[in-house]
Specification:
The structure holds two protein chains of two kinds.
Chain A (H helix, E strand, L loop, with lengths): L1 E7 L7 E2 L5 H21 L3 E8 L12 E4 L3 E6 L2 E6 L2 H13 L5 E3 L6 H10 L7 E7 L8 H16 L5 E6 L16 H12 L11 H6 L5 H11 L5 E7 L4 E7 L2
Parallel strand pairs in A: 1-9, 3-8, 3-9, 4-7
Antiparallel strand pairs in A: 1-11, 4-8, 5-6, 10-11
Helix pairs in contact in A: 2-4, 4-7
Chain B lengths: L14 H12 L1 H9 L1 H7 L15 H6 L4 H15 L5 E2 L1
Helix pairs in contact in B: 1-2, 1-5, 2-3
Classes of the chains: A alpha/beta, B mainly alpha.
Chain lengths: 261, 92
């Protein structure tokens, strides 16, 4: 069953802060993530299923899946001196692959791939103690052509149905966003107004409207990663989001939200 | 997607260049080898000698204009700085 749904920023500057980043802002985002950790702890999940956009880490140009499920026994990722290793909830991973395929989603699965920081940065701050297994769910966000926002929503609807029918207590978490343009001329000019309109939509339970967005619109708004949030919107339907924080830095709209189920 | 987007379809001709940037970003041992001997590290990924401009130091515009993915340029540069300037970072 689906017991909780969240979306978290994952910018690596939350983990390793260069002097360019406002320390107080970083700590406020940490505080919002601590609230998520407390909520997840209270929800007593058996597994955290994370929908994250791969930053060309698990999948390079040798193969670029639109949607992928990590169905190995464990996964590992490193970032500088940080080392992460998480067990995978194998029965749930297999069920999601099999039932996703049966529902018409031509999923890729992998049993060995590097874990992207989009997964372990939020988990660094939100994993309950003792830790629970995870289920990484990849969405291609950075290598065009990416899956359409509407398709991500449909995948989320299917995911919600699959997870909802399972015996495990599942927390579903989107990782990503909001507006930022890493590596481009617009890096220092995120579209904060676009983000604020988006958060108003989510607070009023209108996540389904995001299916009308095009890939070009997401790119223009610095929100290619919103595909992960849209996927979770499909799983939670018309539930109204609760915004834990929106902290715009000089290059990034840091948002943390919960959809209370 | 149109040519106006921030992130574009990576041209196949830039595969080795993107492989080099990806390896700096994602492979700590390669990153160390790149810092020690950039030319040898570029040999490893089969980057032709006439396509090496803009990697030392990282010149984003030069690399992106040749098909490098902007995100890979960004993170490769960050990883190199994390090694060169470790004392400036606060770890949580």
């Amino acid at each position: 069953m689906l017991v909780g749904a969240f979306a978290c920023a994952h910018t690596p500057q939350l983990l390793v802060r260069p002097p360019t980043e406002d320390r107080e802002l970083v700590l406020r985002v940490h505080a919002a993530l601590a609230r998520v950790k407390a909520r997840i702890t209270a929800l007593q999940p058996d597994v955290i299923a994370m929908v994250a956009g791969d930053h060309v880490e698990a999948f390079f140009l040798d193969a670029v899946p639109a949607l992928a499920v990590y169905a190995g026994s464990e996964c590992e990722g490193t970032f500088g001196s940080y080392r992460y290793r998480f067990p995978i909830h194998e029965p749930l991973a297999r069920a999601v692959v099999e039932q996703g395929i049966e529902r018409g989603f031509d999923l890729t699965y992998t049993q060995r791939a590097r874990l992207d920081y989009a997964f372990y940065v939020p988990l660094h701050f939100t994993m309950p103690s003792p830790p629970v297994p995870i289920l990484p769910l990849h969405v291609n966000v950075y290598l065009p052509p990416q899956p359409l926002p509407g398709r991500c929503y449909e995948w989320g609807v299917a995911l919600g149905d699959i997870l909802g029918a399972r015996p495990e207590r599942v927390v579903l978490m989107a990782s990503g966003g909001l507006s930022h343009y890493p590596g481009t001329d617009r890096y220092a000019s995120p579209d904060f107004e676009w983000d604020r309109r988006l958060l108003e939509q989510l607070e009023s339970g209108r996540g389904r409207e995001l299916t009308a967005l095009t890939g070009e619109e997401l790119d223009k708004a610095g929100n290619v990663e919103l595909r992960t949030w849209i996927t979770v919107c499909g799983a939670v339907g018309a539930v109204r989001a609760q915004v834990y924080c929106y902290e715009p830095s000089w290059h990034h709209g840091n948002a943390v939200v919960e959809w209370p189920l | 997607m149109s040519g106006e987007t921030h992130y574009r379809f990576p041209p196949a001709a830039a595969y080795q260049l993107n492989r080099c940037l990806y390896s700096i970003k994602s492979d700590a041992e390669y990153c160390a080898r790149f810092l020690a001997d950039p030319a040898a590290a570029m040999d490893e990924v089969g980057l032709p000698s006439d396509e090496r401009v803009g990697l030392v130091p990282i010149d984003r515009d030069a690399l992106v204009s040749r098909g490098a993915h902007p995100y890979l340029v960004f993170m490769a540069d960050l990883r190199l700085r994390m090694i060169r300037e470790p004392g400036t970072m606060e770890h949580f």
